[in-house]
Amino acid sequence: MANLTTDFIGIRSPNPFWLASAPPTDKEYNVVRAFRAGWGGVVWKTLGADGPPIVNVNGPRYGAIWGADRRLLGLNNIELITDRPLEVNLREIKQVKRDWPDRAMVVSLMVPCDEDSWKAILKRVEETECDGVELNFGCPHGMSERGMGSAVGQVPEYIEMVTRWVKKHSRMPCIVKLTPNITDIRKPAEAAKRGGADAVSLINTISSITSVDLDSFSPEPSIDGKGAHGGYCGPAVKPIALNMVAEIARDPATRGLPISGIGGVTTWRDAAEFLALGAGTVQVCTAAMTYGFGIIKEMTAGLSEYLDEKGMSGVSDLVGRAVPNVTDWQYLNLNYVTKARIDQDLCIKCGRCFAACEDTSHQAISMSPDRVFEVIDEECVACNLCVNVCPVENCITMEQLPKGAIDPRTGQVVGDPADWTTHPNNPMARAAE
Amino acid sequence: MSTPQNAPTTPGIVAGRMPAETLADAFDDLYPPYTPHEALVAADRCYFCHDAPCITACPTAIDIPLFIRQIQAGRPEAAGRTIMDQNILGGMCARVCPTDTLCEGACVREAAEGKPVEIGRLQRYATDRLMARNAHPFERAAPTGKRVAVVGAGPAGLACAHRLAMKGHDVVIFEAREKPGGLNEYGIAAYKTPHDFAAAEVDWLMGIGGITLRTGMALGRDIALDRLRAEFDAVFLGMGLAGVNALDIPGAELPGARDAVDFIAELRQTADLSALPVGRHVVVIGGGMTAVDAAVQSRLLGAEHVTMVYRRGREAMAASDYEISHAANEGVRIVTNAMPVALHGNGGLREVEFAYTVEGPDGLRPAGERFRIPADQVFRAIGQKLAGVPEGLVLERGKIAVDGTGRTSVAGVWAGGDCTGGGEDLTVTAVAQGRDAAEDIHASLMGVMG
Lengths: 433, 450
Description:
- The structure holds 2 protein chains of 2 kinds.
- Chain A has helices at 28-37, 86-99, 115-126, 150-153, 156-169, 186-195, 238-250, 268-276, 286-291, 295-309, 315-318, 352-360, 385-389; strands at residues 6-8, 11-13, 17-19, 41-47, 62-66, 72-77, 104-109, 132-136, 174-177, 199-202, 206-208, 211-212, 219-220, 230-233, 259-262, 279-284, 338-342, 365-367, 373-375, 396-400.
- Chain A is an alpha/beta fold.
- Chain A has an 8-stranded parallel beta barrel with strand order 3-4-7-8-9-10-15-16, surrounded by 8 helices.
- In chain A, helix 3 packs across helix 5 (156-169) and helix 8 crosses helix 10.
- Chain A is globular.
- Chain A starts with 5 loop residues before the first strand and ends in a 33-residue tail after the last strand.
- The termini of chain B are far apart.
- Chain B has helices spanning 20-26, 36-43, 53-57, 64-72, 76-86, 90-96, 103-106, 108-113, 119-132, 155-166, 183-186, 197-206, 225-231, 260-269, 289-301, 321-329, 427-445, and strands at residues 147-151, 170-175, 211-215, 234-237, 243-244, 257-259, 281-285, 305-309, 332-335, 338-346, 348-360, 363-374, 377-380, 384-385, 395-396, 399-400, 413-415.
- Chain B is globular and about 65 Å long.
- At the A-B interface, helix 12 of A face helix 2 and helix 8 of B.
């Protein structure tokens, strides 16, 4: 059995599955239930500065999009940081960490952008004996209007400044949580690193409106006929998160900076993909909010089995394995020539490949009167759309033409690997060596 | 639960074999309608096939992927409209079509996983929603001043009349029976169309306006084709098959033997099913839908033993595989390759004698071995035939000969439905023929080349 124990910037947990800072980690009651279920750690829901508690809306906080059987695909929220008194949260954090010493206990923080505020909260948090802090520079709704959350995360200089304060006033490990609501995720990550962050976590939620009520013309979730953008999360955001994690993992300026991956992790497989792209732990929220804490058993068992199958002894063997394979378009092998192949035994003759190719692509699939669909190699550019729209798994596959074969579409012989950097059509091409 | 006056084992042909509550349940919807969520989940299984095989398999060529997508998109009424554009009796067809041999049989998911998209139930969901609006969705074109007579208010006649009315023509339907609907009203198992749906559907269809219904008017008895031709600009014949094939064997006249179509019609018109008599030992002779409907409903009424006997093999039965397995599930015993040779009894019917059959060069013949099945009631379901055909119409294999657009050998007279050859004697084919004839009548009356 592979060992799932994780050591992330000195924070140990029995598995890499943490609950993200969010409603599931707002109280001792929830967190204890999570630990009982087997979660490796939590990032406690974001604490604010001492003072009058935060106020939330009293109408719907969440909006969603669903598949046909109400499978929740994306969730959006307009909830703010914890609305419970600071001292209650701190007392509970201390108690839970005492009761569950083997679990990771990270505390998320968001206070006004001045050094004193950060100094004050850090001192109190340190007294809980938690394992570390996560700086919430990500929330895109509500708090950002008050100069916190993503308002900080969108300005690299602020990230660096606050991170520096945190490292100056605390010995606790510091994770900076990044907002995806920017144009280049590498810039805030670099800023966090410059400021002395031990790690980054990403992504926070994406600014979003889930839907519009076509009777009242209110955005959803609707508060008395009006709506404000919320933060989007859940399975729908995973591809965006994977790319952002990979960008940080492979950028020379941030390479090696530990990453806690967040964004649509729903099963062990999603987690394994984040780990392969460089994340050292993953954080989960929507999946737990949808199905409850019991999903952790599928996640740990699935990851453990996968590691066993791959002959990996622990999580660290997997971390970053896919990073070397993430590259720029210009380095992709243009002599990798494939053609779609339709398995006639598996084909159910729905014709979706034909409609997609004929209507929207390259007219590279023929259809006979008795509904036999075949690829026309002379036209097939190997775009993969037919594979993606085919309802039968493995019915259409891509077959690589061997070196020396002639591509019937171009009439050219398949040669040795070569990319855009040396392509004759590239005015900037370097001479082939 | 009320105690019935009789039991399945009570000898003879008696009423009240089952408690009233059991009967009410047994004759209710075989498949309850989808809830909105069920419909969304079922609709999501549709792949929106290119040039979809289900459309080709539908005699009325309903754009099935489109209507299912409209359900997915939260517009079931628009889906209903898509169905009704092609098939104005789409509500009934959703209930009675042998979908396993039509659209659902052609569904690519049937081939892929043996579980087709449930097109019939989705069609019912969409048409129910549209009809629940209580507003007829189609409008009539400007009046043309043309008048068309339609003989028979069954599926063919109704579809023809509706399409003609929509085109702006005035239509008079002459129906021999008391009620419109044809076999939808009189000839289909009650559990396929409960809650008086057939009558409600006709009312809804007539909502387009321009259609006058005259019941109790039979061709050849109360009206003559010549008079109709003289009084109307065109005539459509859709009177179905009023005659039944006779069972010409010794003992055929014994009390207890009757036509299955009469039994089904009586059952459909009975207000109190617990008052409807049925035998303890019922034998149904035939292998079509009528035979299945008579056999299954006999069981549901409480007959202890029901046997369906067909003279050829199971593969030759006109009833679909689904219908046959439904009958078997309801406890009907199915005997194939056997033909009746005599009915036995002394005053009342006691048993039916059969001979096993073999297929020879001259058709079926008795194989020699014989057997008897106890019977106090026998239903003949050995086919219906044309009755009261006006002179001058050319027939083909005992049915009215028509061309591809429903034209008969007599100028100005079209025909469709079971009274013509070519179809499969299904509601849906009758609708297609009535509709297509209406289009041709319209083209002909308006001087447009069809």
